[in-house]
Design goal:
α2 crosses α19 and α23 runs antiparallel to α24. It is built from 27 helices and 32 strands. The two termini are 57 Å apart. β11 and β12 form a beta hairpin. The longest helix is centred in the last third of the chain and has 24 residues. It has 836 residues and is of the alpha+beta class.
């Protein structure tokens, strides 16, 4: 094949990738925020081995950034690396290489892959979270929270992964297993640092309503995770000591039906109860140990078989003075409410199952409304009804009595209105090496002392055995050089905190660092940040809906409250792309279904992979990769290449004088092609800018290529001045519209057209509304639902005239046989349906 028949992608792609690097094609003038657009892709973990599934996120972002550049926007499109964390450390241990070396090599590899995809960023803004120049400011952020009382250290039962040998946040435990290695997670009690995200629970929840351009499912996931419940705090009294045992409930109206109380095994009272146990507490301690091994998530499963053990203690129900037994059970956790449950088995299914197993009383206090069949004795009645055996509230509707019961509790100093959240404080301590050291010093005289800002960063030592210690300590605890230091207050001997921070702290603020990546005096320039943020479009996977997005929102609000920024939400628009699957499953080395991009690029070119990745389906939905279907994208690009070369003179003629097209005489074929060209422009703008529907955008371009072919065939080779300009305009606009998706081939074609400055300097086409005007239309004529002919009519012709001409068609007259039709339906400018 000649160059005109087949585009030489290997030569073209290398050529343009080099030019983009040399010209810094995506560099952004941060000093000018006029018509700015911050287009951000979630920065990746440098695994070093991207596959086509990863590419979907970055290709989508690159297409949007290129399109917006062609719209004249000042686009900020940076990239960096979420470089700390377990994967690098585990790989380093496995391969006997330092995590820093492993990470550096992977970053270089991934940058080459980005370049081969034709994905360009403003690389002068690159940040890497494991570099001291970055984590210095992550430590600064910790100190900001510490100063605000939002970073606290406390003894806590935590999720311990025995394989990774570190603590996991609740969100990193999936079905009782470590999300990273799938090991069963254990409970362990350790001194840990927490960020008090719960202080912002109401704001994190309420401000979701302001995020009009976020996917509703992401907002729903965050609402569910925050888990706000309005109800009552009710104070029971422990008989043996007189201590208050508060419970949280959303159903205080059922309080008269409480027949026992249940504590979570982590409840603060459990140790003292065990110590007072007449039997010595061995059975209680064994039960506690066994339940803790289940993990919190398994214990929250509604289908869990309920188990418990009586403590031998009693509590007093405040509304009737009744003594009820106190139990420990496996279905109560400290992650919700107070870790104590007032058990009302007649009206809560979990309590009902527990009571049935242990023969505990079940007393109905909410009767079903009149005429409604209840569920007892087979199951709990959990809906509203009429209160019975409920003291002063007998006979009242339960939902109407509920606030009155809370008022009664407050008046009798036995409880009050309150709100509970499922959200728990963010556990940030990690007992691993590869992370940002926590900037805290422990002095025997001065206590807990923050590292002064002038002494940041607290550097991660390089000469240390980074393998997990496994006893709850970080590997940094084995480094005397790191551990031993002087107290900043009294200059006496002291020790550093040896845990490192959760890597989600690194990613909770990186979008701010991009605006001032080289500032050595502060984490970012507030004035510049306020001009460029919130991020205009954020792109990433829905799997980050709870972890990263929640934490980034929290840190943004903290920095706002500290006076550093003027905005309260980090991301104005959010797009979450679906996964690309292979053989029905997420791409994974373990599953053997990974499609590496390099092989495809060598065979078909990067533009082919880009186009197919975008065309595979709606980008917000999962899509199945099909190796054979990639060839369809390749054929489309080759067809475009040939078509432009065959009519290159026409494209050049239009480009030299676009205004000439308005003065040239055109027939119906030429006008039809212009109408289809500008209809495609309208659709491209809508699909790219408003909806990010890249699959339908590419489909429209494929149709335009077909339309060009049909118009040329209809002209039968007669290249009139009108057809010459119409085909030149169509192909000129085709090159521009296709360029964000297939930049290499379009840059080459643009250069051949003779346009200066590169295609990113060109303007995306505008639709000519006059070209969209339809002069005439062809209507399909049916008799009894079967096509019997067609009518060429002026657009918008009167219905009576349409009916007259349709009935006059010979084929219609033959079908009617001289009789009048029963009915004639006219769909304007489209269809005539005659019922004989």
């Amino acid at each position: 094949m000649s160059a005109e028949q087949h585009y030489p992608f290997t030569e073209i792609e290398a050529k343009w990738q080099a030019r983009w690097r040399e010209s810094r094609s995506m560099a952004c003038d941060i000093t000018d925020a006029t018509d700015k657009f911050y287009c951000l892709m979630m920065f990746p973990y440098p695994s070093g081995d991207l596959h086509v599934g990863h590419g979907r996120n970055y290709i989508i972002g690159d297409v949007l950034a290129r399109y917006l550049r062609m719209e004249g926007r000042n686009v900020l499109a940076p990239m960096g690396w979420d470089a700390f964390g377990l994967p690098a450390e585990n790989a380093a241990i496995k391969n006997n290489v330092h995590p820093a070396d492993w990470t550096t090599r992977n970053i270089a590899r991934m940058k080459r892959q980005f370049s081969r995809w034709g994905i360009e960023y403003d690389w002068q803004r690159e940040v890497t979270s494991c570099e001291p120049e970055y984590y210095r400011w992550t430590q600064w952020l910790f100190l900001q929270l510490f100063d605000a009382g939002l970073a606290v250290r406390k003894q806590a039962d935590v999720n311990w992964c025995p394989s990774c040998k570190t603590v996991l946040a609740n969100e990193q435990v999936v079905n009782g297993r470590c999300e990273r290695c799938d090991s069963v997670v254990e409970d362990r009690s350790l001194m840990q640092w927490f960020f008090r995200i719960t202080e912002y629970a109401d704001r994190l929840l309420g401000d979701l309503d302001q995020l009009d351009h976020w996917p509703e499912r992401v907002k729903t996931m965050q609402r569910n995770w925050i888990g706000r419940s309005a109800g009552a705090r009710i104070d029971f009294e422990l008989v043996s000591t007189g201590e208050k045992v508060p419970v949280f409930t959303t159903r205080p109206d059922t309080l008269w039906g409480c027949t026992y109380m249940v504590l979570a095994v982590e409840h603060p009272l459990v140790e003292s109860i065990i110590a007072r146990s007449a039997s010595g507490g061995a059975d209680l301690r064994a039960f506690v140990s066994r339940v803790k091994r289940l993990g919190r998530e398994a214990r929250g499963d509604a289908g869990l078989e309920k188990e418990g053990i009586a403590t031998g203690e009693e509590v007093v129900n405040p509304v009737n003075g009744r003594r009820i037994p106190l139990w420990l059970a496996n279905y109560v956790v400290m992650d919700y409410g107070t870790g104590a449950v007032m058990a009302v088995p007649a009206h809560d299914q979990r309590d009902f199952e527990f009571a049935k197993r242990y023969n505990l009383p079940i007393e109905e206090v909410v009767a079903p409304p009149p005429g409604v069949q209840g569920t007892l004795p087979g199951a709990a009645w959990q809906d509203a009804g009429v209160l019975v055996r409920s003291g002063p509230f007998d006979g009242q509707k339960s939902d109407e009595a509920l606030p009155k019961v809370i008022d009664w509790l407050r008046e009798h100093e036995a409880g009050d209105h309150t709100v509970s959240f499922r959200l728990r404080d963010w556990l940030i301590s990690r007992q691993r090496y590869w992370g940002a050291p926590i900037p805290i010093i422990y002095c025997p005289d001065c206590g807990t002392v923050p590292v002064p800002e002038k002494d940041l960063p607290v550097r991660l030592p390089t000469l240390v055995d980074f393998r997990p210690v496994g006893d709850g300590r970080s590997p940094l605890a084995t480094s005397g050089e790191f551990l031993h230091t002087s107290c900043p207050k009294c200059a006496g001997p002291a020790e550093r905190d040896t845990d490192t921070m959760d890597t989600f702290v690194d990613s909770s603020w990186y979008f701010l660092r991009y605006v001032s990546p080289h500032d050595s005096e502060r984490p970012f320039d507030p004035a510049v940040a306020n001009r460029w943020l919130p991020v205009d479009q954020y792109i990433g996977g829905v799997e980050h809906a709870i972890l990263h997005l929640m934490y980034a929102r929290f840190i943004t609000k903290v920095l706002h409250d500290r006076g550093w920024i003027a905005f309260k939400e980090p991301f104005a628009r959010l797009f979450t792309q679906g996964m690309i699957t292979k053989d029905g499953a997420k791409m994974s080395k373990n599953k053997g279904n990974v499609v590496p991009p390099d092989v495809l690029i060598e065979r078909f070119g990067a533009d082919t992979e880009r186009v197919y990745t975008l065309f595979i389906g709606p980008p917000e939905k999962d899509a199945e990769w099909n190796d054979r279907a990639v060839e369809g994208a390749y054929k489309f690009l080759n067809r475009t290449w040939r078509l432009v070369h065959e009519h290159l003179d026409a494209v050049r003629a239009y480009a030299a004088n676009p205004a000439a097209i308005t003065g040239v005489e055109m027939g119906s074929v030429e006008r039809g092609l212009r109408r289809k060209t500008h209809s495609c422009v309208q659709k491209m703008r809508r699909d790219l800018a408003e909806q990010l529907h890249f699959n339908t955008a590419i489909s429209a371009l494929m149709e335009l290529v077909n339309d060009c072919g049909e118009a040329l065939r209809a002209a039968e080779g007669a290249m009139s001045p009108g057809m010459r300009l119409a085909i030149g305009e169509a192909l000129h606009h085709l090159i521009l519209m296709l360029s964000p998706m297939a930049p290499h081939v379009c840059e080459e074609l643009w250069e051949k057209v003779g346009r200066p400055g590169g295609i990113l300097a060109a303007r995306f086409p505008q639709a000519d509304l006059s070209a969209l005007t339809v002069d005439s239309v062809t209507l399909v004529v049916q008799v009894n639902g079967k096509i019997r002919g067609r009518l060429d009519m002026p657009a918008g012709a009167a219905e009576a005239e349409v009916k007259r001409q349709a009935l006059a068609l010979p084929a219609v007259e033959q079908q009617l046989g001289g009789t009048a039709p029963r009915k004639v339906f006219v769909v304007p400018d489209k269809l005539v349906n005659i019922v004989a």
